[in-house]
Design a protein that fits this description.
single chain, 224 residues, alpha+beta, Cytidine Deaminase, domain 2, four-stranded mixed beta sheet, 6 strands, extended
């Protein structure tokens, strides 16, 4: 993924294609197995310039994907949409291009989720500043979310059993698969395993703090 510079001298759009080619050649030296899948642009919708830029990438990739990222937050959220192009028109006459929307699924790593969750917390901060949470605070937040989710699931199950809510087979199968994934261990074994992991974590934390203190003490002795 690399950024291209484009200018908009109305009513035209200009993209530095030579820069795009050079960036792609440099990227292939680092990641030779990666290929061009499409291109992205900031905005909440397709523009008249999208067809021209998409035509260029159609020569670089087979059926490229056009991704739009709404940085203007039109609906109070950063919506992401994906499109592919399809020819339209009368054969033998003037032909055009139609962008067909695709289903977008968000896939992320756990480390990325932590960063995004931290950034989202700035929405509720008056000065838009938020500090990093400690490991213990993150564990507490995760435990609170799990507890809230379990409360919601239990309430749903009770409403279904009492007849307040109609049963949904899809939700039932999902909950059954989720329960089957939980390891069946006795409460005593679970408590022993949890205490053992906590002791290991405390030992690692103690050794890290001890090492940090030794380094700080050594620096002070050397500065005497």
């Amino acid at each position: 993924c690399c950024q291209l510079t484009r200018s908009r001298p109305a009513p035209q759009v200009a993209v530095d294609m030579e820069f795009a080619k050079n960036m792609y050649e440099l990227h292939k030296k680092v990641s030779p197995s990666e290929i061009i899948l499409g291109w992205y642009a900031t905005g909440h919708d397709i523009t008249e310039h999208s067809v021209l830029i998409h035509e260029y990438y159609s020569r670089e990739a087979h059926n490229p994907i056009h991704l739009t990222v709404d940085t203007s937050l039109q609906n109070s959220r950063m919506s992401i949409k994906a499109y592919v192009s399809a020819p339209m028109g009368v054969p033998g006459k003037t032909m055009g291009v139609m962008f067909t929307p695709l289903t977008v699924k968000y896939v992320y790593y756990d480390t990325e989720r932590i960063g995004v969750d931290l950034i989202m917390k700035t929405c509720f901060s008056p000065n838009r500043v938020i500090g990093l949470s400690s490991d213990l605070q993150q564990v507490g937040s995760a435990s609170a979310r799990i507890q809230d989710t379990l409360t919601m699931v239990l309430q749903y199950a009770e409403d279904v059993l009492s007849g307040k809510v109609a049963a949904d087979n899809t939700v039932g199968r999902f909950l059954m698969d989720l329960i089957n994934q939980v390891p069946k261990i006795s409460p005593e074994d679970f408590e022993t395993m949890l205490n053992s992991n906590i002791n290991d974590l405390l030992m690692v934390t103690y050794l890290a703090n001890l090492t940090q203190s030794q380094i700080a003490l050594n620096e002070k002795l050397l500065s005497l």
